[in-house]
Write a structure and sequence with these properties.
With 136 residues, the protein is α/β, with parallel strands linked by helices. The chain has one domain: 3-Layer(aba) Sandwich (Glutaredoxin), CATH 3.40.30. Helices cover 40% and strands 21% of the residues. The protein contains five helices and five strands. It has a five-stranded mixed beta sheet with strand order 1-3-2-4-5. Strand 4 and strand 5 form a beta hairpin. The relative contact order is 0.17. GO terms for molecular function: protein-disulfide reductase activity. It comes from Leifsonia poae. This is Thioredoxin. It holds the Pfam family Thioredoxin. Belongs to the thioredoxin family.
Length: 136
Amino acid sequence: MEYPRSEVVINRMATTEITSQNHDQSVADGIVLLDFWADWCGPCHMFAPVFEGASEKHSDITFGKVDTEAEQDLAASYGVQSIPTLVAYRDGIPLFSQAGALPAEAVEDLIGQLRALDMTEIRAEYEKQKAAAEGR
């Protein structure tokens, strides 16, 4: 007797390579986490499985990786001086930036905080700060 083959499909959300060409579109909507890294960076390699694990667990979030060697101008625009650096957006608004390899629990806590935010208040404050910076 032959049994039907069953295949298990795992819903994996791969990380996205972020470049200066796709950056603005990538951070525009929803929750986005950006990992600034370099291949020569030991702590970056230690953080990579944490970041990848979170991307597999939270398929509704965009997880982007910015290679600081290939995207030096993009890294400079964020003022990245130490890697890895994790940057978080929600609805196109940058809300968090921290250098260092975070443990999985800290990444999960950050995601929970990002999900819980009242974006109406934050959007209003962000627009106010942008207007002040532009001298309006």
